[in-house]
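question for whoever is on the cluster today: can someone run the full assembly for these? three chains, 870 residues total. i dont have access anymore since they changed the login thing
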Amino acid sequence: MADVATAPNAQADARERTGRKRGPKLDAEQLIELFGIPLIVVVGFVAFAIWRNTATLDSVETNALPWNSIWIQLREHVVLTAVGAMITVVIAVPLGIALTRPGLKRAAPVVVGVANAGQAAPAIGLIVLLAIWFGFGFWTAIVALVLYAVLPVLRNTIVGLQAVDPTLVEAGRGIGMSNLMVLRRIELPLALPVIMSGVRTALVLLVGTAALATFINGGGLGGLLNTGITLFRFPVIVAAAVLIALLALLIEWLGQVLELVFRPKGI
Amino acid sequence: MSETTATSSGSVTGAEIRLENVTKQYAGQKVAAVGDLTLTIPAGEIAMFVGPSGCGKTTSLKMINRLIEPTSGTIMIGGEDSRKRSADELRRTIGYVIQGGSLFPHMTVAKNIALVPKLLGWDDDRIKKRTDELLDLVSLDPSRYRDRYPRELSGGQQQRVGVARGLAADPPVVLMDEPFGAVDPITRQRLQDELLAIQRELRKTIVCVTHDIDEAIKMGDRILILQEGAQVAQYDTPEVVLGSPANEFVEDFVGSGSALKQLSLARVDEVGTFPQTTAKIGESSAEVIQRAQAAGHRSVVVLDERNRPVGWPWLRQLKGEKIVQSEHAPDAIDRRATLNDALDVMLVNGHGGAVVTDAGGAYFGVVDFTSVTDQMRAMQEKAHEVSNG
Amino acid sequence: MWDFIVERRSQLLINGFNHVYLVFLAVVFATIIAVAIAILVTRLPKLEPVANAVSAIGLTIPSFALIGLLIPVSKIGDGTAIIAVTFYAVLPILRNAVVGLQGVSPTLLESAKGMGMSEFTSLYKVRIPMAWPVILAGIRVSTQMSMGIAAIAAYVLGPGLGTFIFTGLTGYGGANAFNNVFVATVAIIVLALILDLLLIILGRLTISKGIRVA
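^ ran it for u. tokens below:
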């Protein structure tokens, strides 16, 4: 969704500011998220499971919420997110690298500008438009997801690489590293924290937008929610919404863990 | 400087650098950044490039390792055209030291130093040995600093590691770009002394860019003073540059008070040092006091197990039963330090003298204020005679 | 497509207006709520990480899911849409307002105090004007994303251009499906960019020249 696009990025910037000041230690906010989110997810899911198995539901509601179709949709949702994330990274990181090399450097602001404006497109409009174009289904949903998620990763790759101190690049060249070596051993490792925070933003975006994939038969937990809304059954609606939210939180948490794992030591 | 060569202990491992009609012309600029520069830097010497900003000194330096490719002209290193090899291969045989050290923040000290040896395909054992050797050389305890990240080092320590990285693969030529520009004056002076001590052993060919004429006078065997467009204003030993500046530009640049600048030419060991009573940590205080009083000394220099000065207490301060580590190590100066530096240190420590060290920071002796001022007076008289005669 | 636009121009105009109006209301509410919370945080700095974590976690929850959660509470219709959009709009503004208000240099606040300003005076004379550029940046982010969320909210009968998208979806394969979706999507993009431009102009008018970043 356009929603989370720029927002967590602004917040990543803010976080970076504090992060640098406090060095390698986690600040209170990161701790709250790191330990709070799994807690919310576990408690939320246990509560859902207990409710699902004990609540008295009418036949329509029971039919809408069978465990096996919940699992299937959950899996579809995760697959949408994961495949979307992989394709996004595979496209955005090399593109970002290319746009910081001498030859294409000047194109970077243009590409980012266009991508930025593209973010103003409503996710739902984009998904439906693509479906009219390519037909309904999983891969159309993936195309829409990737279109959405590429921007934060692309932008952070460019920003991260541009932020690498040019004297370090020159130092690398000066001691005899080739351009490729400098990229691999100096620029990319130093830009990695920024790139990973873009990946995390992308993950959040993907998991949220994947909830809309159901409108074009792309699968995912949105289907459950849609069923609930169509049948106008509050228990189904709430159950589906809670599951989607829990999954999104879990993915956000995963993104945060990835960000920490990939942070090079010494920075 | 001839003295440097005379007192040097190591044999020359450097290579001669020759710049022949080297020009750098940037597209779209009328004046060449470097215009027709011809220059020979003898093997084993330190050449200091100085000049106002924008004079082309850094450009000239970077053309030697081809970070900037000359528009025309030839650069010969050790008699070989620098274009004979690929730029990357060439740079692996030329040390490069930059302001602040420019250490890679995501690599440990050891990894930073090991970069070039790795590029050259050294095996791990040899690299590890070399890394420790270099850390020792730049006075950093390998076991303590090897696995630290640059962030965990002080500015001076980072710069030391930067020097170690530059020397890692034992290159005949080392290029330095404002190497000590980012540290405080006291640290800078100490780093300069250390580098001079290292150079006494290694005798590399060092080309160093600086904007600080005092640094140039202190460090350089030769000083290259550049005007805009890298036009050579003067290229000679510090004595000649100070004593008979080639033109008004050099005179202005070197600045007034060049008699005082002569202080940067005289070295501490030329003035003479004398021994002070020393004590090891853990020795009985009473014995040490007795020894010092017998020698007529009012203070003692405390040394650690590697003979490095770690304290300089007055006798009345030795209250405990045993000699203990002092709170502050004295600001020691290398025996090749200039009188200028010696005065700086003396003025702050209240002893009216300074502890002098030798290679590796080992205790050498003490120099006192009177001998330095005597030397100054002698030099001033000499300068007076020159200007009158 | 031109015929389509001409034919439905009144409908498009009404829905476009409603869309923008919904976003406008939500962002105004959100700004008031967010700045109020941020001011509270300046009084209780311990809450800063909590506020930041809440805005980070809140932004994680997919809007479609939140709309689902709100249906039983506020029923279907405009109310749900406005609550959902406001909820999201608060988060980026909150984050920026906290950062902005906390980021005002303590020496400035000290000197304001020294001049005899009360806590309240220094809040609206010093803190808020200094933090305003950062807060406004948050408002811009909020506005952009609210335009998209409002489109999804149309699914539960919220007002706005989103209805055209869902009409197109239901009429998939029909003659006007593409027109419906395309015109609405482009209209949302254009309106979002216009709003952003207006906010930039607002910034030019309201940010003190002394702290404007070139």
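summary bc i know u wont read the tokens: Residues 2-7+27-261 of chain A form a domain with the MetI-like fold fold (CATH 1.10.3720.10). Confidence is low (pLDDT under 50) at residues 1-24 of chain A.
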